[in-house]
Amino acid sequence: MNNVTNSFGITEYNVSICKNIDDNISIFKEIFKDDDTIIMRPFRNKKTGIRFFAISVNGMVQSNEVYQSITAPLITLDFPTECDDLLDVISQEMVSNGDVKTRENISEIVCDVLYGDTTVFVDGCDKALTVETKGFELRSVSEPDSERGLKGSKEGFTESIIVNTSQIRRRILTSDLKFHFFRVGTRTNTLACVAYMDSLVDKRVLTELLRRISHIKTDGILDTNYIIEQIKDKRMSSFKTCGSTEKPDVAVANLLEGRIAIIVDGTPMVLTAPYLFIENFQSPDDYYLNFWYASVGRILRILCFFVSIALPSVYLGLVTYHSEMLPTEFMTTIAESTKDVPFPTFLECVFMLFVFEVLRETGVRMPDQVGQALSIVGGLVVGQAAVDAKIVSAPMVIVVAFTGIASLCVPRLTGAMLLIRLVALVCTALLGFYGLFMFMIGVLVHILGIRSFGYEYVHLSMRFQSFKDTFIRAPHQKMITRPRFAKDRIRK
Amino acid sequence: MKKLFIIIGLIFVILNFSGCYDYTELKDYTIVMGIGFDKGEKYRYRVSAELGGISGNSDEVRESQTSVVIHSEANSIPQAIANLTDTTGGELYFKSCEIAVIGNELCRDGCDDIIEYLLQSTDFQMKLSLAVANGKASEIFAVKPTVDNVISIELLKSIKTAKQELSSSRIISPYQAFNLSARNELVPLPLLTVKDGKPVTVNAGGLTLLKDGKTAKKLSTEDSVCLNFIDNEIERAIIECGNSGCEITRCSVEKENDVILISATALPLDESLSIDTAENEIKKRVERTLSTLHSLGLNENTRVQVCLKKADK
């Protein structure tokens, strides 16, 4: 059997369906050699004697459904013997299930069967019928841990692409919403789809997105991050140019702004593109709470971003290079606190940041019962004991703790903030505030140079409509325009 | 190629404009909170420095004292300061020094060189405050602070309070002193006096007038307020009038030809005190101060007029 690879990197079987059912059985035995989960069930109609052969995967199908919808009717009922009429009669009159497709391509049949459908072959026909019989276990819809909110929907995406698309569909009851399915990953053949609003999406962005996805050459896609890293602009940048969310309401809001959603089977994370820098500071709660409170929260997040990346460096600069900027009393307090600490301030800072990251990382992976105890121990041990032992100074513990807490306020930029913080620290250790500002200018230049699918990552404008959903969240009645990448800019 | 030029340009800028290669930990510094200059016994100058951020090993010591005063003598100020560094064994940090006290004897002989040293030295910050001690500067620093842990901070606060609440003092930096001296004007420096009692405190009311770098006249608290009237340095003052008093605020001074017109808002602290009486009292006192200035050769043939407006309660 000669197999070829298509433009999405998927293996295609270079063989057609045979009219002889025994040949078809041989083909599939060859394809699924050594796979014990495949059920190949030959049977015949007891009135006409016509032979059938059904193929499905054990554990992926609802066995009851297969029996009641396929096997039982085909064994017991009467029908004509002509091939074309036969398939038509079977799909129209006998198989009572939801979706029935006629297949001519072996590759499509393999994909269908592996995804939980049952394919029926008829002796004497060179086509087959795929009947939807999916019955694999799914996680129930629940609130995502990474995106908890005070108000709004508590539903989250699951690992099933069908459930995820249905959650989006339930919220946009219009034919303008389109889903385009495709497969990606040469060995996993993962089902994915792009969702968009036909009247709002920028077709150039859509074309570019599909082009980039078709260029993904990998054997497996297990999560959306596999896709992100291969389609994003500026791949080496720590800032992401594709958004991700586990909440259907967030995905729908993005679609209504002209963005495109990428849903991948097997992961609850849905991608959205294009993605702008200011979205890192947005939260779904911003739109469900009063706009004053939401605006304060947003400004707080932006400030926390700056605190998280700059506070340790500012402290280091003040203590080592620019002590004259400190008020005298504060300076004497710091000097007294650091008097007996044997390490330079820079090393203290690096050590404390390292400890904080270890604690954070451990807290993520620990079971809930142990996590709480660990945080108490970590806080006591690091905070109190290290200060008492004069390994670190008390002001440093405060600075690093506040930095860590501020970084948790902006979870979407955790990785970028960690990197910027460390490099800023090194620059400050070398050149004081001069080094810090030089580095920050470099970061700013980098951010300003990023584009997300052709659109500026940071768009500077002095018009109110540009501010309405950036530093503040304007009242809903004032938010009358969509972002600039939407085809239809006016919300109506 | 473009990136290479940018990188080279960046390195050039960093190497030429960076001045932050002097990495020093705060704990390696010995912080000087205040500095005093006196006439030395063996040498020309005696420099006293109050070092802050000192704590003992026991709780008792920590509570009672957080500063230490050290002294050194030399024939030049830089040498005396270098000797201080030898005493402490660590680098002295003068940028936190907020007050410099000059002893009475040294001031009488001339303190221009001290003011010039403080001005030219990059170790001291621009907002350093100058003051003159009624006796020795070292006696001022020997007073045990009553409120703050550091006497220098207490001195500075008392000068600020005297200026803002009583208008009987001023805050003068070496830069301002130098400018006034260069214009042949009198330099009014706050006068610090040790008051005996329990506890021993330092009074910051009153001014010392320097002319050509030497003490010309010491003014009492009352005369200092009048001088501040003339120079439009009044923020808030209480003028005693017999058994009563008058609170002065919002003062403005205009000088036309040889007449100094002082306008202010006054609030009599007693119903029986009239505005006219207060006006006359202020005029009398200001004229007395003016005559003192005349005797020093300044503001000759100048008259004063006072106009008070009653403040609303």
Describe this structure in words.
Chain A has 492 residues and is an alpha+beta fold. In chain A, a hairpin with a 5-residue loop joins strand 6 (118-122) and strand 7. Chain A folds into three domains: 3-131, no CATH class; 145-275, no CATH class; 289-452, no CATH class. Chain A is 46% helix and 13% strand. With 313 residues, chain B is an alpha/beta fold. In chain B, strands 1, 2, 3, 4, 5, 6, 7, 8, 9 and 10 form a ten-stranded mixed beta sheet that branches. Chain B is globular. Chain A binds chain B through residues 319-321, 323-324, 328-329, 331-336, 338-339, 341, 344-345, 429, 431-435, 438, and chain B through 10, 14, 17-27, 29, 31, 33, 52-53, 55, 66, 93, 95-96, 98, 125, 150, 153.
Biggest interface: A-B, 25 and 27 residues
* Major pleated sheet of chain B: 10 strands, mixed
Main β-sheet, spatial strand arrangement of chain A: 3-4-6-7-5
Structural class based on helices, strands and sheet pairing of chain A:
alpha+beta
Strand content of chain B: 25-35%
Q: Helix content range of the residues of chain A, please?
A: 40-55%
Radius of gyration of chain A: 29 Å
Give the uncertain stretches of chain A in residue-range form: none
The counted number of beta strands of chain B is 14
User: In whole angstroms, how far apart are the ends of chain B?
Assistant: 76 Å
Q: Describe the biggest sheet of chain A?
A: 5 strands, antiparallel
Summed over residues and divided by their number, the pLDDT of chain B gives a mean of 84
Broad structural category of chain B: alpha/beta
Mean pLDDT of chain A: 86
